[in-house]
Amino acid sequence: xxxxxxxxxxxxxxxxxxxxxxxxxxxxxxxxxxxxxxxxxxxxxxxxxxxxxxxxxxxxxxxxxxxxxxxxxxxxxxxxxxxxxxxxxxxxxxxxxxxxxxxxxxxxxxxxxxxxxxxxxxxxxxxxxxxxxxxxxxxxxxxxxxxxxxxxxxxxxxxxxxxxxxxxxxxxxxxxxxxxxxxxxxxxxxxxxxxxxxxxxxxxxxxxxxxxxxxxxxxxxxxxxxxxxxxxxxxxxxxxxxxxxxxxxxxxxxxxxxxxxxxxxxxxxxxxxxxxxxxxxxxxxxxxxxxxxxxxx
Length: 297
Hints:
Elements: H1 4-10, H2 16-30, H3 32-45, E1 47-53, E2 56-62, H4 65-77, H5 90-107, E3 123-124, H6 127-141, H7 155-159, E4 163-164, H8 172-181, E5 187-189, E6 195-198, H9 207-217, E7 232-236, E8 252-256, H10 257-265, E9 269-273, E10 276-280, E11 286-291
Antiparallel strand pairs: 1-2, 3-4, 5-6, 7-8, 9-10, 10-11
Helix pairs in contact: 2-3, 8-10
């Protein structure tokens, strides 16, 4: 019989994690009614807090077995094999995967059809700030002194600084990455804050251009990374704002969200040399390169 004595005996034959699993299965089989009650109570205790804190968000909560299994499976699916040189811990890569999971839901319209406007992350920034970012990027590339980000600290510059829709400030380096492949909409306001003109989204790799890049690159092209297109976006090899690069397929490269952010954060430049992508860091040292795969057909 599988009584307590049998269970204690099993402790000498199994590693800790395997024994923990065995105990759980034994408890469920020994008293299924208690197991059912435990699940109902767990449903009542389920909660999730995503609270803003210094430089980020603090996540805390408790999930049922069903929700936890679903989340872990999704995170595993969105966590590719680490590329060469990726020194992130498993926890860090799992945090990235959680953000990627949310972006997949939003960017692929998976939140249902009940909304008139698809949910999205919005960033408000003035034209002057965008121009200043371009000037700083050019100066950094030419090893020149960096110009000021703003003409001065005034009530206007504080109120109109780069910010998410809820007013949370956006760091310059993150804004540079978001501007690379986000939709750019122009809104011109009059002196009374009335809307005078609304532009259109432009210079993004969408539709046929994105499909062509996916057909050519197949996955994230950062050296050693094989993240699938579902968690990738188009990156302008010659930056759209800084270098006046076009949005043609030949100027686009597929990068996963983590490596797209990594390229901007670390100042990595990408060049095409003899039919291959070449990645160089801020010192000019080559990070690696990948040969262009041929399009199918």
